[in-house]
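thread from #wetlab-drylab

HS: before we spend reagent money on co-crystallization trials with cobalamin, can we at least see a predicted complex? here's what I'd submit
DV: go for it
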Amino acid sequence: MIESTLQKHALTIVGGFHPPDDEWFTGYQTALMIGPDEPEFWSHFTQQPEYLDGLPDGMDRFSKRVLQQVAEKLGGKVYFPSDGPPYPPFIQWALKSSCYQSPVGLLVHHKAGLFTSFRGVLALSEFHDLPLPHDNPCDSCVNQPCKTACPIEALTPSGYDVAACKTYIGSKVGSACLSGCKVRLSCPVSQNFGRVKAQSEFHMKAFVGE
Ligand code: B12
């Protein structure tokens, strides 16, 4: 029922966990990490008022409207990755929910690969069964192309140089990265995920403009 409600908004359950009784989840027994349902997400989102109005943070505004409605319907609450600073610990939550740390630091997921991302986390008071766990796809990835895919070695196993990445993408020679981060694109799992190029462009433009 939850999955079909989310699918109407081109969203899906990426993973979940049964949370501890901490500052975020007191009174809630289930946490579900919600992400875009690819490849439908982009064509759906671009028909929504938050995209069409051309105002800043359209995807965050869309996520808030839709997931707040879903949370209300289910009697739960929702946290968003952009709620900050200080930011809710999405990375820690993801690591409890079928996501792993890849060789380059980014999160990796068995379906999304390095394109793993979240639109929110739903906190529900009932105990729900969780999606089945999956192995880390990097364990069976022989070539690990992500380690060497960045043309300027800004994102490698030794870390992420955000300033160098932004400067390069903003330059003429680096503008090819605007259609998608080469590291994320190099992941064999990501390549079968169906992330639309226009969506990658949207995120990379937002990233460089920050
Ligand atoms: C701030 C932030 C950033 C900052 C990081 C600043 C820094 N490193 O100094 C900037 C703007 C650079 C950034 C960039 C990106 N980010 Co970011 N980011 C966040 C955010 C909103 C908060 C992180 C935070 O400060 N947490 C609090 C601190 C205390 O915890 P922390 O674990 O130490 O946080 C660190 C990591 O999150 C890391 N980080 C954040 N993003 C990224 C991206 C990469 C490539 C790496 C290696 C590390 C990294 O930087 C944080 C500060 O050191 C999270 C959402 C969330 N609520 O967690 C998303 C998040 C981590 N980012 C995400 C994404 C998708 C990206 C991008 C890849 C997307 C894009 N194209 O815009 C880009 C990278 C560009 C690229 N190569 O494609 C995803 C996860 C991706 C993944 N598979 O792991 C998240 C969860 C957002 C989401 N909606 O799903 N991000």
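DV: Residues 58-74 form the longest helix (17 residues).
HS: ok that's useful, forwarding to the group
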